[in-house]
Amino acid sequence: MSFRLNEFVNANSFEQLAALYETIDEKRLHISDTGISESLINRWKIKGLLNFGKETKNQKLILMLPIKQKISFIEFVWIKIANELQTFGITLETINKMAKDLFGKISDNELYKNLITNFKTGDSVQTQENEKLMLFLKLKEESENAFHFLHVLTAQAVVTQEPILMMVFNNETWFPYLEQNNAQYPEDLMRKKQTLPYVSINLTNIVYTYIYQDYLQEMFSGMSMFTAEEANLLYYIAEGNFKKIHVSFKTTTQKPKEIPKAENTFREVIHLFLNQQYRYCTLTDNKGREIKITTKDELAIKLFEDKCKEVKQYKRLLLNHTQNLEANQTETATEKQNKKEETQEQEAK
Q1: How far apart, in whole angstroms, are the C-alpha atoms of residue 261 and residue 266?
Q2: What is the C-alpha end-to-end distance of the chain, expressed in Å?
């Protein structure tokens, strides 16, 4: 089931932000959707990396959870972060420490306290809307399904699209770095960033890789409504592999137009295809190659259908004629046989 997180980009009201927090906490995905191997998932379960902040007395019981276990988008993001950290050689102990920080209570997180008051949540969000959100998070923290620091960071990435870097240092310390909040970080953290080696994971890239794939999957799941040529053209547009699109219309009242590369191009072309008002579309890709598609000409279709009707009618007449001819031939043969028998009877007399 799609999260439709693209609908929350640039969210600018408390209602939208609250809905985003609730959405990314819903368990709609499976662990297998992360693309991580089952053997590695089982290893992480034993090490406690998939507890998602929940204490488990008997860690071996976690192994009973199937690879199809339902997870939230937040948990999906964490698994992706952990996988990238392991790729860079970060120890499981350090990753586990990060998990406890990210899935711990928001109010206990010093990094959250330093950053949350200045978090951007959309360019036009007013202070009052932010205060509503803070109250919402505080009330939610008192419930069983409390939000965590990773919720805040992920929601920030979805709404603002600005880079959020998860910086991990050799001494097992880490912190999320948002360049737009640079002035809010303590001096010791900034000094550490400038002097010590670290591994950096871009949380926003993880979030938007999923959003992009999810959006395309939902969009193209209904591609049966388009021709193969139209679907191919839409793939070019979705990937951004085009410079312009030239459109010629069926009616002479509509002049040909050129659709430039813009944010609403994808939506505009889909609308064009659904209405079937174009005669042909020519897409010029980034290398200057042209891809041209045409609609079926309605007059040609009508002529073809009329021709088919004529052929069917002709076949029907031919069939009737053949049946009549066969019947006449049968009658003629019978008459000849009768005359032959009459002649033989007369000769016998």
Answers
A1: 9
A2: 97
